[in-house]
Amino acid sequence: MLFLYDLAVSSYGCKTRILLRHKGLEWTTLSPPDGYGSSAYCKIVPSGTIPALVHNGFTLAESDAIAEYINDLNPQPAMLPEDIQKRAIARALSRFHDTRIEPVLRAYFAQVAPASRSADFIAQNAKLLQKRFDQFNQMVVPSPLLMGNQLSLADCGFAPSFAILRCLQTLLGFDFVLPDRLRAYETALVAHPSVCNEYDDYVAILEKWAAAKCSET
Length: 217
Known about the structure:
This protein has helices spanning 11-23, 39-42, 63-73, 84-106, 119-139, 153-156, 158-172, 180-191, 196-214, and strands at 2-5, 27-30, 52-55, 58-61. By secondary structure, the chain is α+β, with helices and mostly antiparallel strands.
């Protein structure tokens, strides 16, 4: 049995849930005891991060490590190419997402509540976000997904990030243009059978979260 410490609004949790769905695995979701980052949770996961996977008494944090573990645990369908160089590229694209794109998107979370918004920060962060996606656009030629027509570990993190991007751009109104080939990639990714239901659920969760933040005084 697999257990996943998770929160519905977590982008890395969504990334992991897409992977689990694609592998056809069943899991039980657990809430971090006393909340995310609590002392009680840090006794289980010292870093206090989510998600964290528990399998037969083995606990593993960090979404990329969890993804690799699940891919090794249940090898089919394979989510990394057989070719060693293409496998390296898939890992590099996943890391680019996690270290270059997701943190820039997450930086907007503090801007959602109206009282905490900074027009200067929103505009400057949009420039960095545009730069990161333009760089990513130069790295990839989706066909239609990042590693061909099969869902890979490189793809899973981008689905929640596209949802966050759409939600926050609508809410905050920052200038950003997704390059054409990435717009086509987004369309193909969120329509994938292993992604679409989780993506739709995540969009609804984000909208509810954003509405709650916007009502804060």
